[in-house]
Amino acid sequence: MTSLQHPQAIRHFQSLCDACQELTHRYHSPSELRLYADGYLHALRRCEELDPRELAKLETLIDRWILDPSSFIGPNGDVGTLFRQPELG
After folding, report:
1. Which of 2, 28, 59, 81 is the most exposed place for a label (fewest CB within 10 A)?
2. Category of 2 on φ-ψ map: left (φ > 0), alpha (ψ -120 to 50) or beta
3. CA distance 41 to 16
4. Tally of CA atoms within 13 A in the half-sphere of 15 that contains its CB
5. Which is more confidently placed, 60 or 25?
6. Region at 4 (left for phi over 0; alpha for psi -120 to 50; beta for the rest)
7. Dist. CA 74–CA 89, nearest whole Å
8. pTM for the structure as a whole
9. From CA 35, how far away is CA 41, in angstroms rounded?
10. What is the arithmetic mean of pLDDT over 44-63?
11. Which of 19, 22, 13, 11 is nearest to 60 (CA)?
12. Which region, left, alpha or beta, applies to residue 72 given φ > 0 means left and ψ of -120 to 50 means alpha?
């Protein structure tokens, strides 16, 4: 697994993970999380805040993290409602 060494890259990873977890609490789909992450990573590329190698590691790690369903907890801790709203009555 690719590991991040640069403190700023680690902060960006944590921030992106927190934002994606919050989006799952609002029932956003994995494809919507991917779009959000792509925008975030694009902004990092444009501002050139990270070394290109660290940015590539971050992109790889985020790709793996979003694709792994165990990365997320459903709203109220219920994995059964992850990415979808429960049906009402």
Report:
1. 2
2. beta
3. 9
4. 11
5. 60
6. beta
7. 20
8. 0.78
9. 10
10. 92
11. 13
12. beta
Cα 48 from Cα 42, distance rounded (Å): 10
6: DSSP letter:
S
Q: Are 77 and 26 in contact (CB under 8 A)?
A: no
**Which helix (H) or strand (E) covers residue 41, if one does?**
helix 30-47
Amino acid at 11: R
Q: Is 3 helix (H, G, I), strand (E, B) or coil?
A: coil
Residue 34 CA to residue 66 CA, distance in Å, equals: 7
Q: Which amino acid is at 42?
A: H
Q: What is the C-alpha separation between 32 and 10, in angstroms, rounded?
A: 22
Whether residue 38 is predicted with pLDDT greater than 90 in this model: the reply is: yes
Burial class of 78 by CB neighbour count within 10 A (0 to 12, 13 to 18, 19+): exposed
Q: What is the CA radius of gyration of the chain?
A: 14
